[in-house]
Amino acid sequence: DQEPTMNPLRNKFIMRGIALFVLTAFFALPAMAALRFQTAGTKDVRNAMVTAILTEIDEDAGAGLLRIYSGAAPATCAALGAQVLLAELTFSVTSGAVSGGILTFAAITSGTGTAGAGGGTTATWFRVTDAGGECVFDGNVAVSSSDLNLNTTTIVQNAVVSINNFMTITAPNP
After folding, report:
1. For the whole model, what pTM was predicted?
2. CB contact at 8 A, 72 and 136
């Protein structure tokens, strides 16, 4: 009996797969902040990153929404559980502009506290969605040093909720 010969092309792929496993198992991949992205010309990667966020917010007909909630935020843009919607504000139809790898949001229309806010409930996090309600991203709410800073985190039913200055989103490594 002759021993079957191994296919050299198959062996090459097996060895590459093993090498890739060894490399990823023993060496950490670089963090996004350590990478340096192209910022000019036809490969403006930083602008493309934040433009993708803007596109998702502006995706549906109508303006995106900023929803403010109480309770613990989900770990991801997952479905809501026991969180209570305290206020819903509306972005401009074009929710922002991108320049130099920075997404700056346009004015956001004031809203009022929902029935869920009752006599006063503490806002802890927010969700930005497209007009159809599909989650784009979540963030934290506080009175300072947060993703969304409000003059007070206590939202009351039918009371005006307004934002003077919403966050900017900057692509990594300017």
Report:
1. 0.76
2. no
Lookup: tokens for 102: 């920075």
DSSP string of the chain?
A: -PPPPPPHHHHHHHHHHHHHHHHHHHSPPPPGGG-----SGGG-HHHHHHHHHHHHHT-SSS--EEEEEESPPPSSSPPP-S-EEEEEEEE-SS-EEEETTEEEE--EE-EEB-GGGTT-EE--EEEEE-TT--EEEEEEEESSSSSEE-S-SEE-BT-EE--SS--EEE-S--
Q: Tokens for 135, please give them.
A: 């989650």
Question: In the block, which residue shows the tokens 């003059």?
Answer: 151
Write the pLDDT tens digit of every residue in 124-144: 999 999 999 999 999 999 988
What is the C-alpha to C-alpha distance for residues 138 and 88, in angstroms, rounded to an integer?
14
State pLDDT tens for residues 79-108.
888 899 999 999 998 999 999 889 999 989
Q: Please tell me the least confidently modeled range out of 18-22, 32-36, 71-75, 150-154.
A: 18-22
Q: Using CA atoms in the order 66, 70, 71, 74, what is the torsion angle rounded to 10 degrees?
A: 0
User: Do 106 and 83 touch, CB atoms closer than 8 A?
Assistant: no
